[in-house]
Design brief:
The chain is an alpha+beta fold. The protein folds into four domains: 200 residues, 2-Layer Sandwich (Heat Shock Protein 90); 140 residues, Ribosomal Protein S5, domain 2, CATH 3.30.230; 88 residues, Rossmann fold (3-Layer(aba) Sandwich), CATH 3.40.50.11260; 130 residues, Four Helix Bundle (Hemerythrin (Met), subunit A) (Up-down Bundle), CATH 1.20.120. The protein is 36% helix and 22% strand. An eight-stranded mixed sheet has the order 5-4-3-6-2-1-7-8, covered by helices on one side. A six-stranded mixed sheet has the order 15-14-17-16-19-18. A hairpin with a 2-residue loop joins β18 and β19. α17 crosses α20. The longest helix is centred in the middle third of the chain and has 24 residues. The protein is elongated. The structure holds adenosine-5'-diphosphate.
């Protein structure tokens, strides 16, 4: 039969494995046993509802066989097995799940220590074997197939015999060379040690031949005429793993480090999680949970491809790989397992959604995750910031989509960039640092910090010494609009036309200025027409001649957001911001405008249009007619007396 070729990236991984100088080659056993265990999980799940499997829960097992003469190690399971197509698909290419990240890392470096950091799967067998044979019979199939490969040259798949459903992987262990002791993987002692070390919690029994000693009669008699006893070795097949899943073990039985290692392997993450949460709940509903809060978001986290959900077990039997009902949407980044003896084994997915016990568990887990995050925020702010950079957006979505209903728990977890301290802070920190005189929580929305730090509207707030939260995520403004207030302090955009900053005197002065200049302001409004809702003079502007603010609920940022979402580029009136052009009466430009208004209306009109364009620029938008704007500015420069 013709040899099939490995896909190119798989070939590289394979080469890396074959030539590995990695010192912990022993992890290959962990990988193969974990695959076997997954395969059994799958068939066991089917057997709950399908009598045709013909196996009881106690019948499932993993077996190790050693043939020292042939130098082979065989790992056998009675799990779901693979068809010829599956052998081709699963073992011919690098596996989809964990290995993708591995692949990316591999492209960056040739570091071998990345091998040990997380599951690298089936190919790790080639670290210790010169040839690998996989004989498999899929559940529901009558025929079996053998996949065989000696490395990068490719592999063959040929029909063969196998009496029972499952998979048998035989490794032809490499000869000892270059100071490497491969023979150790044929030794009972080593295999036993490795199972204990890496696979002890695997819930299916892992059987192997174990050497024992017993006393037997030798056939001779001692001086007193009693039969003489001698020690004799014999072997017995025995399950060598303790089979208690890691999540069923207490802190003294499984250290945090062990849990972290379990997480990295199981969920294919190279980084330690920021938190490990263990739950041992007894009561109305008893369950155990082992949850992890990752540090970085998987590359597909904010896409439809990301699969959320916790693994759900009933007394150690996997009943659902991804149960999404166990956690609210805003905590969908949490990974882990939940195991409850109170859940019925053959419960259907539909029924599960309405399951009362499941709801109780979900409520508790939400509380646990929240309090864990809170704790992290208080005890390790740096770590929390790392977490927030990865998953803060998800928390914000949570606030907006629940219309603020989950606000009590979630708002405390948010962080925003503080312009004063130049780092992410919590809303509580902001409020706590507010001086007595400050009424509102000020915020400014924009594309980036750079731009926001130069926002003219912010000047007056900053002059008072008040902090401003710079919001740079598109969703941020919706978040503060949903929250309305925090710890009884209202949110207020610095681009709002009422910042609550002006004193009575200033207000009076503004009104006077307004009255005094009413003619000019009417002229400005007339000139700009529908572009603005109003023109006014503002005592709060400092160094700039003009700025744009808004009245009513829609801000410029929100308008921009709606605009970017609209299909035909047009906006309904309710999504349009009510713009207010504010003029600074103290600025020399104002004087020039005033004079022009009195003596030369045509020039005054030009100035008004230009000032409006300037206000747009300051607000981070383009002038409506860039060509006209450029011409106006150019002609102004041309009038200069420096020529
Ligand atoms: P991963 O386990 O990360 O998916 P592997 O390379 O270890 O990657 O395995 C690839 C795939 O081959 C598995 O996802 C599984 O579908 C299949 N597979 C591996 N070993 C077995 C087995 N013993 N029984 C059934 N299927 C298996």
């Amino acid at each position: 039969m013709a040899k099939k070729q490995f896909k190119s990236e798989s070939k590289r991984l394979l080469e890396l494995m074959i030539n590995s100088i990695y010192t912990h080659k022993e992890i290959f056993l962990r990988e193969l046993i974990s695959n076997a265990s997954d395969a059994i999980d799958k068939l066991c799940y089917i057997s709950l509802t399908d009598d045709k499997v013909g196996l009881d829960r106690d019948d499932f097992r993993i077996d190790l066989f050693v043939d020292k003469e042939k130098r082979t190690l065989t790992i056998s399971d009675n799990g779901i097995g693979m068809t010829a197509e599956e052998l081709d698909k699963n073992l011919g290419v690098i596996a989809k799940s964990g290995s993708r990240q591995f692949k990316q890392e591999m492209e960056k470096s040739e570091e071998f220590d990345i091998i040990g950091q997380f599951g690298v799967g089936f190919y790790s067998a080639f670290m210790v074997a010169s040839k690998v044979e996989v004989i498999s019979r899929a559940y529901g199939a009558t025929e079996a197939n053998m996949w065989s490969s000696e490395g990068v040259d490719g592999y063959t798949i040929t029909p063969c015999e196998k009496e029972t459903v499952g998979t048998e992987i035989t490794l032809y262990i490499k000869p000892d060379e270059d100071g490497e002791d491969y023979s150790t993987f044929l030794s009972e002692h080593t295999l036993r040690r490795l199972i204990k070390k890496y696979s002890d919690y695997i819930r299916w029994p892992i059987y192997m031949d174990v050497t024992k000693s017993r006393q037997v009669e030798s056939g001779e008699k001692d001086e007193d005429g009693n039969p003489k006893l001698v020690w004799e070795d014999y072997t017995e097949r025995e399950a060598v793993n303790s089979r208690i899943p890691i999540w069923q073990r207490t802190r003294s039985e499984a250290s945090d480090e062990e849990c972290v290692a379990f997480y990295k392997e199981k969920f294919h993450d190279m980084e330690d999680p920021v938190s490990v949460i263990r739950v041992f709940a007894e009561g109305a509903v008893s369950y155990k949970a082992l949850l992890f809060i990752p540090k970085t978001a998987p590359y597909d986290f904010y896409t439809r491809d990301y699969k959320a959900g916790l693994e759900l077990y009933s007394s150690g039997v996997l009943i659902m790989e991804r149960c999404e009902d166990l956690l609210p949407e805003h905590y969908r980044f949490v990974k882990g397992v939940v195991d409850s003896q109170d859940l019925s084994l053959n419960i259907s997915r539909e029924m599960l959604q309405h399951d009362r016990q499941l709801k109780v568990i979900a409520q508790n887990l939400e509380k646990k995750v929240r309090s864990e995050l809170k704790k992290l925020q208080e005890n390790d702010p740096e770590k929390y910031r790392d977490f927030f950079k990865s998953f803060g957006l998800q928390l914000k979505y949570g606030i907006v989509t629940s219309y603020g209903m989950g606000r009590d728990g979630l708002a405390d977890l948010l962080m925003f960039y503080s312009s004063k301290t130049e780092k992410l802070i919590t809303l509580h920190d902001y409020v706590a640092a507010m001086p007595e005189s400050q009424k509102y929580i000020y915020y400014a929305c924009g594309e980036n910090i750079e731009h926001l730090s130069r926002l003219p509207q912010a000047e007056a707030v900053r002059e008072k010494g008040y902090d401003i939260l710079f919001l740079t995520d598109e969703i941020d403004e919706f978040v503060v609009k949903t929250l309305i207030s925090h710890e009884e302090k209202e949110f207020r955009s610095v681009t709002s036309d009422d910042l609550g900053l002006v004193s009575e005197e200033e207000k009076k002065a503004a009104e006077e200025a307004q009255e005094k200049n009413q003619g000019l302001l009417d002229f400005v409004k007339e000139t700009l027409g529908d572009k603005i809702a109003a023109a006014k003079v503002t005592p709060t502007l400092r160094s700039h001649p003009v700025c744009l603010t808004t009245q009513g609920p829609v801000s410029l940022e929100m308008e921009r957001y709606y605009q970017s979402r609209s299909t035909n580029g047009e906006l309904l009136p309710m999504f349009k911001a009510q713009r207010v052009l504010e003029l600074n009466p103290e600025h020399s430009v104002f004087e020039v405008l005033k004079n022009a208004y009195k003596t030369d209306k045509a020039t005054a009109e030009n100035y008004v249009k230009m000032l409006y364009d300037l206000s747009l620029l300051l607000a981070g938008m383009a002038p409506e007619d860039p060509v006209a704007f450029t011409e106006q500015v150019s002609s102004l420069i041309a009038q200069g007396k420096h020529g």
